[in-house]
Fold these 3 entries.
Entry 1:
Amino acid sequence: MQYKAGTATVVSGSEAVSGTETQWLSNVQPGDSFVMAGVGLVYDVASVDSDTQLTLTAPYGGTGKTGAYAVQRDFTSDGIPEMAQGDIETAAIFTRAMRKLQGLLGQLGGVAGTGATIYPSIAAGKAGTSDTEYFWVSDSGTLKLYQNQTGTGVEQGEYPNSTTLQEAVDALAGYEERVLALIQSLHGDLGSLRLDFINQSYVVEGS
């Protein structure tokens, strides 16, 4: 669930956010997302300085204002925000989630396109490849791509492994259910509604 107690004040061009009747020390942590109601701009929290002071990772780009806000606190293990009934600015948060998923799926294409073999270590990869050939090494939730450059394993990039990608797919399926529940709670006259994120389509059946 989002943390939305009190009100927040943001100033255009400033990373500082001040709160009134907020308890941010016990309810917010670095890495959470911050959004002002009615603005649609999502920022990451860099630090929680006090119960009434946050610092964002980037200067606030919208118009300065005081009012309702939300801190997104729930994420999957690979950083995709999770929405719940009653959240605000769900469109902005949902867009960020979809972009994250899109990036993960794009990385999957990069993983599949190399044709390189996965090795248990850099040393094993160097021993099993020739000069200029590529190899993968699994490392705590990711696959790192290396190139054998005259006997040295030079890292080329980092990609999610199959477990991380499956979590992303599961999160996508979960979003379909949450969005359906949210839309139908607001528009009960729609009848049956089906979403297809992959093909970017929807079907509404009369009630």
Entry 2:
Amino acid sequence: MISKITICNLALAQLGQAPISSLEQDDEKARRLNLFYDPVRDEVLRTHNWAFAGAEEPLALIETDNQNPGRYIYKYPAEALFVRRVFRRDGRGEALKFREVFRTDLHSRVLAVDCPRAYAEYTRRILDENLFDAAFVKSFSLALACDLAVALTGDSQLAAQILQKYTLSLDEARRSNMTENFCRADSSDAFTEVR
């Protein structure tokens, strides 16, 4: 079972630092980990199309764009950290051009799309560490270590080494994700036949 403290201690181990028992303890390591944890997690989620964080859903229409006939304004998906693709839900699944805009009158981001019934494929912000897959845990802990390296050790060379490890772990994750997606594409016909 993966926990926040496990990921933090993996990052500290990369730095040659002793583990912590709690993020509430009163020391520099815990303070820095609390500061960096959420932003680094979100950054690593955005960096790669992680299968465990992917979602697809119909977009909620807010209004038609009066200034651009044929353009529709949709609510930005609540769980979305990063919208990867907007598409039609027809036989082709055609990708659509879209624009992310901040609407001051709505105080939120919206998606402008030239399609009346659009769907989005996006990366969700995952807060439950038990949902993380092993490749993500490795990449996330390395990214966290990289961001903490100079602050906790003063060693910029160590930070560069960890950055290199992080880059390699992302490449590994991309390769395994492509293999998994390829296998799923091959098995989908058999699944459809059974159904």
Entry 3:
Amino acid sequence: MSIKNDIAMVREELNSEEKFFEKAVITEKFIKKYKNLMIGAVVALVVAVGANVAYSINKQSQITAANDALATLSKDATNSEALLTLKSISAELYDVWLYSNAVAKKDMVTIKELTNSSAVMIGDLAKYEMAQDAKDAASLDSYASAQDAVYRDLALVQSAIILMSNSEIEKAHDKLAKVSPQSSMSKIANALLHYGVK
């Protein structure tokens, strides 16, 4: 009985070794067949990781340079070198700088130029400043009719006040009714509706 058990164990061991070698041969064939593809995938992964790291480093250096230029301009607003650096690195940040200076100096020429800014928020704010500076209801209404106008409700209230001062009460009430109930201007609009000139 023990000889039979020994033979069975040897057979089982040979079968397992045979299966191991069979799998090793299959693995070797697979590796030979797809070796170039696997090497290409590893190289592509290394290149992608390297490109991502290089891009991140470049982006961070641009941010640092833009911040340095902005800090320089904060100290000396007439520094043309820092202004050119800021313009070349970040056109949007350049527009923000121009806008902040133009509003502080009431420079309507620069604000008018910024109405077409690539920085969406700056373009909208410049349009509002132009409409407010015109001091007429039509300009404010035109601004407020834009779908994504930031100061839409403020422009509507200002337009209504101008209309009230021109004794166009009905039109003023129509403008005030358009103010969004969720807006911080809704309380002012309601007060003007109820306590304003009727």
